[in-house]
Design goal:
The chain is of the alpha/beta class. It has a domain at 114-357: 3-Layer(aba) Sandwich (Rossmann fold). The protein is 40% helix and 12% strand. It is built from 13 helices and 13 strands. Strands 5-7-4-8-11 form a five-stranded parallel beta sheet. A two-stranded parallel ribbon has the order 1-2. It has a two-stranded antiparallel ribbon with strand order 3-6. Helix 10 runs parallel beside helix 13 (336-357). Its EC number is 2.8.2.-. Its main location: Golgi.
Length: 364
C-alpha cells in the first residue's frame, strides 16, 4: 500500500520524502535535547544555588548548534566532598555535630568539651594562655560566667560565644568562679556529662593574700587583710564567710562536683609547679585532654621581673607572650602570726583534699 501511494505521488514523491526525513530528524533532535536537560537538571539546580555558571551535558550532532552557547558540565568524577574534586565545583562542606556550620578553614561553633572551672588566683589565666598554643585547642579568651551569672540566657547564647573549631579540635573556656558556685556542677552535667574539668589549685593561704591584693588595687579603702580574715583574732576564729578565705576550702567545694562527675574527669593543676615546671604541668594537662604533647620546654622562659614563666615568641608572634600587668603583683605584707593561724585553719581541709584527689600538694 505504501508503495502505491508513493507511486501515485509522482513528481511529489522526493519532496514528501524529504519532508518526512526532516520531521523525523527534528523530532529525534528535540528528544535528545530534552533528555540532555533531564540528565543535567540536578547540576543546574546546584549551580543556581551556589551561584555558579549554568551547565549542560555535552551536546551532539543534532543539538550542537542549539547548545553551543552553554558551558559543558564537568565530566563524571568524585563527589564535591572528596579531596580530589575540583575546587571550583566543590561547595563548602557542612560539618556535622552542631547546629552551626562553617567552612573547613573557620570551623563550627560548639559547646565546650573542657572547662577550666577554678580556682580564682590559682593560675587559671596562665593555664589558659599556655594551652591555647596547642593547635588542637581553641579557647575563649574572656570569662563568660555562663554557669554562674548568665545561665538564664540559654545554651544557644553560650555556644555563640565560643570560637570556631574543626572536628579535630577541642573547645575550651575558663571561669574560675564556677568551682565555688553551688549550681555549676549540675548545670555543666546537664550540658554534657562527658565534660572534662580542670581545677588549678594553690596554697590556700597564698591564694587568699593574692586575692586580697587584687581587691585592694581596685578598692584601696577596704579593711586590712587581718581584719577581714578573722571574726576574733585573739581566739583564732577565722571568718570562713569571707570569700577570699572560703575559696581555699577546696575539699568542701569538691564534694559538690563529685556528686555529678567522677574523679577521673577532673584534673588538678598545681599552681606552684606551674611556676617551677610549666612544661611538666602542661604535659599532664595535654594528657588529660587526650591530645599530643605539643607544648614542651621549648615554649617557655622564666621572666625574673614578673617571677613566673612566659611563652617564647612563635612564628605567629614576633614578641614573647607574658601575662598582663595585673598578674604577678607584689603581695601585701602580712603578719607571720596571721599566716600561721590560717595555715592551722586550712590544715584539715588540705589533708582531706589530698586524700580525695590522691595528690599531696605539700602546702604545710
Amino acid at each position: 500500500m505504501a508503495y502505491r501511494v508513493l507511486g501515485r505521488a509522482g513528481p511529489a514523491q522526493p519532496r514528501r520524502a524529504r519532508r518526512l526525513l526532516f520531521a523525523f530528524t527534528l523530532s529525534l533532535s528535540c528528544t535528545y535535547l530534552c533528555y540532555s536537560f533531564l540528565c543535567c537538571c540536578d547540576d543546574l539546580g546546584r549551580s543556581r544555588l551556589l551561584g555558579a555558571p549554568r551547565c549542560l551535558r555535552g551536546p551532539r550532532a543534532g543539538a550542537q548548534k542549539l547548545l553551543q552557547k552553554s558551558r559543558p558540565c564537568d565530566p563524571p568524577g568524585p563527589t564535591p566532598s572528596e579531596p580530589s574534586a575540583p575546587a571550583a565545583a566543590a561547595p563548602a562542606p557542612r560539618l556535622s555535630g552542631s547546629n552551626h556550620s562553617g567552612s573547613p578553614k573557620l570551623g563550627t561553633k560548639r559547646l565546650p568539651q573542657a572547662l577550666i572551672v577554678g580556682v580564682k588566683k590559682g593560675g587559671t589565666r596562665a593555664v589558659l594562655e599556655f594551652i591555647r598554643v596547642h593547635p588542637d585547642v581553641r579557647a575563649l579568651g574572656t570569662e563568660p560566667h555562663f554557669f554562674d551569672r548568665n545561665y538564664g540566657r540559654g545554651l544557644d547564647w553560650y555556644r555563640s560565644l565560643m570560637p570556631r573549631t574543626l572536628e579535630t579540635q577541642i573547645t575550651l573556656e575558663k571561669t574560675p568562679s564556677y568551682f565555688v558556685t553551688q549550681e555549676a556542677p549540675r548545670r555543666i552535667f546537664n550540658m554534657s556529662r562527658d565534660t572534662k574539668l580542670i581545677v588549678v589549685v594553690r596554697n590556700p593561704v597564698t591564694r587568699a593574700i593574692s586575692d586580697y591584693t587584687q581587691t585592694l588595687s581596685k578598692k584601696p579603702d577596704i579593711p586590712t587583710f587581718e581584719g577581714l580574715s578573722f571574726r576574733n583574732r585573739s581566739l583564732g576564729l577565722v571568718d570562713a564567710s569571707w570569700n577570699a578565705i572560703r575559696i581555699g576550702m577546696y575539699a568542701l567545694h569538691l564534694e559538690s562536683w563529685l556528686r555529678y562527675f567522677p574523679l577521673a574527669q577532673i584534673h588538678f593543676v598545681s599552681g606552684e609547679r606551674l611556676i617551677t615546671d610549666p612544661a611538666g604541668e602542661m604535659g599532664r594537662v595535654q594528657d588529660f585532654l587526650g591530645i599530643k604533647r605539643f607544648i614542651t620546654d621549648k615554649h617557655f622562659y622564666f621572666n625574673k621581673t614578673k617571677g613566673f614563666p612566659c611563652l617564647k615568641k612563635t612564628q605567629s608572634s614576633l614578641l614573647p607572650r607574658c601575662l598582663g600587668k595585673s598578674k604577678g603583683r607584689t603581695h601585701v605584707q602580712i603578719d607571720p602570726e596571721v599566716i600561721d593561724q590560717l595555715r592551722e585553719f586550712y590544715r584539715p581541709y588540705n589533708i582531706k583534699f589530698y586524700e580525695t584527689v590522691g595528690q599531696d600538694f605539700r602546702w604545710e
